[in-house]
Amino acid sequence: MRNGRCIAVVVLTAALTGCIAGFGERATYGITFYCPGVGNMDLGDEGIRAGLEKAGYHGQVARMTWSLSFNPAIDQTVRIIAQQGGKRLAGYIQDYMDQYPGREVNVVGLSAGTGVAVWALEALKPKYKVSNVVLISSSLWHKYDVSPALRNVQGKIYNYYSPTDAVLAGPMKVFGSIDGVFLEDAAGAVGLQVPAGAESRIANVEWRAEFEQYGYYGGHGDGTNAAFVAAVIAEHIVKPGADQPPRTALARQAVTAPQAGRSD
After folding, report:
1. Are 128 and 151 in contact (CB under 8 A)?
2. Is 35 helix (H, G, I), strand (E, B) or coil?
C-alpha cells in the first residue's frame, strides 16, 4: 500500500510539472521538445523520435506532458492548463540552454500542443532563443499573433496545415481554438496568418497528395507519422553533414504564406 502511494505521488507530480525525465546522453547533441495534443494521448512523440533518428538526428527528443486532466475536452476549454504548460516548457528550455550552451533547441507541437509551444516561446527570457519551430495540425486561431514568439526564434516557424482535417473543421470550432476563439478556422486548417514584416520567418505548408506516400493523408494526427517526419519535418531540424542523409526534395518545395490582409 505504501509503495502504491509513492507511485501515485510520482505520477501526480509528473502531471503537475510536465513530464520531461531530465536530459539524457543524447542531449549533448541538441534537443527537440515535443508538445502533444489534448489529453496527452497521442503517440506522436514515438513518430517524431523515430522519424528524426531515421533522418540522422543525434539529439534528444523530449516529450512535454502538459495536461493536468488527461481529458481532451477539459484541456481544450480550460485554457490556463496549456498556458501554464507553456510557461513550464519555457523553464525547461532555459534550463537546457544553461546546461548545454550553444546546442540547438527545436520545438514541435501537435494540435493544442502548438499553443503550449508558442506560449513557451513567448515566455522565454530575451537571451534564450530556439532554432526552429514546427506546428502540426495547430488548433491555434489562424489569426493568432505570433510576433512575440518569433522574437525568440532564430530560424522559422513551420506550420503544416490541412483543409481536410476533420477535427479542426468540426469539434474544435465548437470547443474553441486553444487560445479561446470560437467558430473560426484554426491555423492547422487554413494556414497561420503572417504578421507584417515576418514573411520570411513563417512558412505555411499545405497538405498535398504526395504526402500520402509517407502516411500523411491530411488527418489530424497524420503529420507525426515517422515516415513523414523523416522525409519532410526533419528538414527543419536535422542539420546536413557528412553522417546525415541529403535533404529531401519534398521539404525543399515552395511554401505558402497567408498574409495579414486576407479576409476569412
Report:
1. no
2. strand
What's the confidence (pLDDT) of residue 40? 67
Tell me which residue of 219, 250, 247, 224 sits closest to 109, measured CA to CA: 224
pTM here is 0.84
- Domains along the chain with CATH numbers: 2-252 (3.40.50.1820)
Which secondary structure element, helix H or strand E, spans residue 160, and what is its range?
strand 157-161
The answer to whether 14 touches 65, Cβ cutoff 8 Å, is yes
What residues contact 100, with CB distance under 8 A and at least 6 apart? 23, 27, 28, 30, 31
Cα 107 to Cα 6, 10, 142, 230, 237: the distances in Å are 32, 26, 19, 16, 9
Q: Indicate the residue type of 20.
A: I
Q: Which residues on neighbouring strands pair with residue 161, listed in sequence order?
A: 206
Q: What does the pLDDT read at residue 76?
A: 67
As a whole number of angstroms, the distance between CA 177 and CA 180 comes to 5
Matching residue, cell 503550449: 116
Mean pLDDT by 10 residues, the chain (264 residues): 36 41 85 86 80 95 83 71 90 96 95 95 96 97 96 97 94 88 95 94 97 96 95 90 40 44 40
